[in-house]
Amino acid sequence: MRSSAHSPAGETLDAAARGLTVRIPSLLHSYTAGARTVRLPAHATLDEALHDLDARFPGLRFRVVDEQGAIRPHIKMFVDGALARRLDTLVHNAAELMIVGALSGG
Amino acid sequence: MATRKSSTSAAPSRTTLLIATRKGLWTLNGDASRRSWKLTGPHFLGHIVHHAIADPRDSRTLLAAARTGHLGPTIFRSTDRGRTWKEAAQPPAFEPGSGRTVDHSFWLTPGHATEPGVWYAGTSPQGLFRSADGGATWVGVKGFNEHPQRKAWCGGDQDGTPDGPKLHSILVDPRDARHLYIGMSSGGVFESTDSGADWAPLNKGVKALFLPEPDPPFGHDPHCVRLHPRDPNRLYQQNHCGIYRIDRPAERWTDIGAAMPKSVGPIGFPMVLHPRDPDTLWVFPMDGSDVWPRISPAGKPAVYRSVNGGKTWQRQATGLPKAQAWWTVKRQAMTADRAPTVGVYFGTTSGEIWGSRDEGRSWKCLTQHLPHVYAIECA
User: Fold this and answer.
1) How many contacts, defined by CB atoms under 8 Å, are there between A and B?
2) Which residue among A27, A62, A67 sits closest to B94, beta carbon to beta carbon?
3) What are the structural domain ranges in chain A?
4) Residue B263 CB coordination number (10 Å)
5) Class of domain A13-101
6) Tell me, what's the ipTM?
7) Cα dist. B313→B243, B270, B362 in Å?
8) pTM of the model
């Protein structure tokens, strides 16, 4: 069993150690060479995590985030199951980011 | 960056049509006689491809403007005639902090012959972008995007046509790379003589029946504007309110739609010019009456051709359905080849490609069952 200790900011060392698992929707598999999950190191915010993802898979971020920093209308992002509507959402304690193509027209 | 391999490569010696649709990109390859055609594709299946066009300066570069229902807008580039594609590293996007977002890139235009690698893109909402590296990276043309009058010219980003206001018909004067025209729905036709640093409206004489002023300086709705490559002083436009011609340096457009039959009217989306004869052009009328059905008038599709600059028009419907055909043709979905006897082609909202080997005198359906066709171009 792994031990867990709190940092001064309340962050668990476990969280920082395990990083962030990003679940990639089929929409974006052309960027990740088919990978359905991507492991990232821990990041403070969703914005930082998406920049890291874009550095690994260039072009991915602009397909899901517009030039004004808003998540695109038919893209949903869930941080440990909670819907994130803004890029400044904290992810430093999160284990999973799930990117989803939401319902969008015919 | 997404890189894709394709089986839709186009042989350079054949007549090839690039077909951009609401669900992907196809190519239609004709034999030398243009009698036999073979469809290949799809590529970018599921992508909304608004425009795909070949670079006439190098015969190998293709660009395609695409997005999906979920994913934001981008540009795909091929430098081997469609065998492989690579995504633009920096697609058209407005400046951060401007508050504006590109919904989709709508129109692509290769730059001047003396500027290899230069391309222009028009977006929805109205934005003008330029690439100097063959479409790999795009930057906004500040002289337009940040022009102090831009909002007055275009209205808000929520105004305009049902699927978003658009900047289209980017025209480069073959005599002068700095001389540009653009069309905007809505906004009107604008001209720049300094590579896009400044712009001036060019709409005198054009009706805008949806505006309260009788002859407003801007705010019009040109659907498609064409400049003749052999006589660059001559421009035509298929407008929301008619068909027009201008011979620069004149500042006022001449109404050439009034000569169309009253039962058909002068409304439509596309317009195609003869590659060599500035007096010959084709339009595809649609029903713009009462609630604007936007289908072929009376369900009887027909092309209309003028061989005298719009003084008179001839109906060209031989081979087309005679009744109960309720499709129409979008503004980018009609084109012509450069053969001695020009081939004219159009794609329909019902997914058919029609072609004529004899300048519109007779028509044949080249393929069917494609998705809604947004654009076709000869490659």
Assistant:
1) 62
2) A67
3) 13-101
4) 9
5) alpha beta
6) 0.87
7) 12, 15, 16
8) 0.93
